[in-house]
Fold this sequence. Notes:
This protein has helices at about 1-20, 30-55. The protein is mainly alpha-helical.
Amino acid sequence: MAKEETNSVKTSESSGAMASEEWCDLLPVEKKLIFYSLSLGIALLVIFVFAFGVFHH
C-alpha cells in the first residue's frame, strides 16, 4: 500500500507542476481576437433585439 500512496502523491505533484508550466499570458493577437469576438457578439445582440423589438409589432 505504501507504493500506491507514493505513486498517487507523485502523480498529483507532477500534474500540479505541469499545470503551472502550461500557464502563459495571452498574446496581443489573442487579446484582439477576444475583443473583436465579444464586440461582434454584443453588437449583433443589440441589432437583433432592436430589429425584432421594432418589427415585432
